[in-house]
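Researcher: I'm comparing several assemblies side by side, and this is the next one on my list. It has 534 residues spread over two chains. Same procedure as the others: predict the full complex and return the structure.
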Amino acid sequence: MALQDVCKWQAPNTQGPSPHLPQPGAWAVPPGCDPQTFLQIHGPRLAHGTTTLAFLFRHGVIAAADTRSSCGNYVECPTSRKIIPVHQHLLGTTSGTSADCAVWYRVLRRELRLWALREGQLPSVAGAAKLLSTMMSCYRGLDLCVATALCGWDRSGPALFYVYSDGTRLQGNIFSVGSGSPYAYGVLDRGYRYDMTPQEAYALARCAVTHATHRDAYSGGSVDLFHVRESGWEYVSRNDACVLYSELQKLPEPDKEEEEASRDHPEPASRHRDSRMPAETEIL
Amino acid sequence: MASRYDRAITVFSPDGHLFQVEYAQEAVKKGSTAVGIRGTDIVVLGVEKKSVAKLQDERTVRKICALDDHVCMAFAGLTADARVVINRARVECQSHKLTVEDPVTVEYITRFIATLKQKYTQSNGRRPFGISALIVGFDDDGIPRLYQTDPSGTYHAWKANAIGRSAKTVREFLEKNYTEDAIANDNEAIKLAIRALLEVVQSGGKNIELAIIRRNQPLKMFSAKEIELQVAEIEKEKEEAEKKKSKKTT
């Protein structure tokens, strides 16, 4: 009927995703192969392995990460940035393939900026997480690996979402992502309280990442710490992981100290916990 | 000259008109009146119900439609065109929730409907939608909103507006009577809408359909009885006002 139908011309959809993104499913593989197996056999070795964590508390959201980028058996970069700001009130911790994370964060930043221009305000953290997971869901099965925790402060207060490239999107108070996450979870679950002061929260985050870097081969370097407050995100510190670990060893454990004080026992002289010596058994 | 520039809508006339769009606006003027009022805690939509044939089931004629829990719209013009627009708007409301978790703002869905209407004024082989819409609702921030769209794809925010047949008369009435007192509470806003419609509707409350949205509550359609009650109250107030006037003069 119309000329445009005859010429098969489509008006550009300015409301949808950018035409510059690669078309999902358009991965050139030999016939008979599915993209995932092909990549596993012949694909480039992509950088993985990290420790990142984020948790929500009364005064905002804390995001902390190590800075080691490993690729197989060697350290590609000992001082990489794994926490990426998206806008004034939103940060993302990145884990998985560094390249994928970098690209998708730029895409997310672009989409949120366009949204803010059209609607006059940024979407909530929940909305941003939904947008990211929807955009990545087109690429499921193509070996995209982005595991990220979006930390932000929106109209409903501090918010934390975990988004994974297979489509997982979870809301929670504590998340740790990466090969070092089991170690970090151990420390976090022990010391987390919603009513912490910011200083206690910083100490907890540093402690968790440091312990993870001590045990996990793929985590190390330094510990980055960010804090998202009502006024926006703030880069708190970057400390060397080994230095932090030895400092933590020197500190007495807070609850052991309380027990000793309540029973009026003098503090034992040496508390140096050497991994070669068997741990002191607690006398209760 | 107009006859040479109104066949295909993608053609501008020498003096800058899109005649098909203007003819669509004429079609809107033939539709039954709809009025929208934005109160402080309430938004009200009223429409003139055309009298139905004897054998027709009255309930199937619905001119006020919910687009989502917190947004609804009334239209004036071609009912079939309205059905298409309403369907697309309803889908968009849910798509928005799916993509961004949050319900649409009234402005967003108005902009969507307006963009949709504009698309149809700029593609060949299609004609514009012959409807104007009044879109009301509350946003997350609790502020009530009223928007009006027209066949050309423009939209504006209003405090109170009317579309359709005799829209001008109703709008003049609203301009005179929309005061801070008139919308002081929910009941007053409802009465203002009914009074505005009574200016142009024949045979009173039977031919009025009314719907309201209160903050954080879903759309409520008024039953015929409730409308009759309101109309009776209005008549009483009118009588009392007349009595006062006559007392003053005597």
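Model: For your comparison table: Chain B is about 40% helix and 20% strand.
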